[in-house]
Amino acid sequence: MSKTDNQVKQLLAEDVKIPQHVAIIMDGNGRWAQLRGKKRVVGHKSGVESVRTSVATAVKYNVKALTLFAFSSENWQRPQTEVNVLMDLFMFVLTREVKRLHKNGIKFKVIGDLSKFSSKLQKMIKASEELTAENSGMVLSIAANYGGRWDITHAAKVLAKKVERQEISADEITEASLNEQTSLANLPELDLLIRTGGDYRISNFLLWQAAYAELYFTDVLWPDFNEIEFTKAITMFDQRERRFGQTGEQVTNKK
After folding, report:
1. Helix 3-13 and helix 227-239: axis angle, to 10°?
2. Fewest beta carbons less than 10 Å away: which of 6, 54, 118, 200?
């Protein structure tokens, strides 16, 4: 048994808190490649293996939902060659990886403004979601052309149109009703947000959902984010005291 397997086995055997919903900002692909004297696109291709590893690790820990930030609404500003590679990788995931996900009972979905993608890619996304729709395992969400501000704005527009149609009044709009219109409304609350690559910001990712999430930042570049690194994040989550506005004494007394 490897060192990694021993760490995972030990953690699973302990009475630890496992996050129900984990999100990851997969940063550092380009720098990983440049450090090795290669083009940035090589890093993106290498990062696919880290996606596979993270999905497998999340399943092993019985995480209910995993959300990965693949392509932000700001990423269109990158060099066209890099954008093209990212789109090709997306197509690869949809044609090859989704079948593997379906075989393992994982439910696949894509969140974000999909209107900027080609009609072919949109059809592939729809087909992939339909293929896995009835699966009862972990929910894997890929954020593509996604932005947290877009998510909140879109939800607000949906509610505004309901007010226009007199289906609800403005006074009936609550945090709960707005949350119901956001991209991850049907999933468990976000517990843990991980960012690789060394930056200490969340870059317009899941702004609404991350309100009470635990944040974990690591200098590890995404292609090097393996099962051990994921385990470190889970261990950190277990050690955090989650107060949700209460005092530490109040939380302790509830245990």
Report:
1. 30
2. 200
Q: Which of 15, 27, 88, 253 is catalytic?
A: 27
Asked if residue 48 lies in contact with residue 89, where contact means CB atoms within 8 angstroms, the answer is: yes
* Structural contact between residues 196 and 25, judged by C-beta atoms closer than 8 angstroms: yes
Contact 146, 113 (CB under 8 A): yes
Question: What are the residue ranges spanned by the domains of the chain?
Answer: 18-93+108-128+138-216+228-239
Q: How high is the pLDDT of residue 151?
A: 98
Name the catalytic one among 75, 135, 204, 226.
Answer: 75
Residue 2 burial by Cβ neighbours in a 10 Å radius (0-12, 13-18, 19+):
exposed
Give which of 27, 65, 21 is closest to 47, Cα–Cα: 27
Residue 174 makes CB contacts below 8 A (sequence gap 6+) with none
Q: Give the chain's end-to-end CA distance (angstroms, integer).
A: 35
Please say if 75 is a catalytic residue.
yes
Which of 244, 172, 188 has its CA nearest to residue 214?
Answer: 244
Query: What is the pLDDT at residue 87?
Result: 85
Distance of alpha carbon 110 from alpha carbon 105, whole angstroms: 17
Q: Which of 240, 244, 249, 191 is nearest to 19 (CA)?
A: 191
% of residues, the chain, pLDDT over 70: 89
Give CATH superfamily name and number for 18-93+108-128+138-216+228-239: Decaprenyl diphosphate synthase-like (3.40.1180.10)
Q: What is the pTM assigned to this prediction?
A: 0.89
Q: Cα–Cα distance between 148 and 73 in angstroms, integer?
A: 9
- Given the DSSP bridges, would you call strands 192-195 and 214-217 parallel, antiparallel or unpaired? parallel
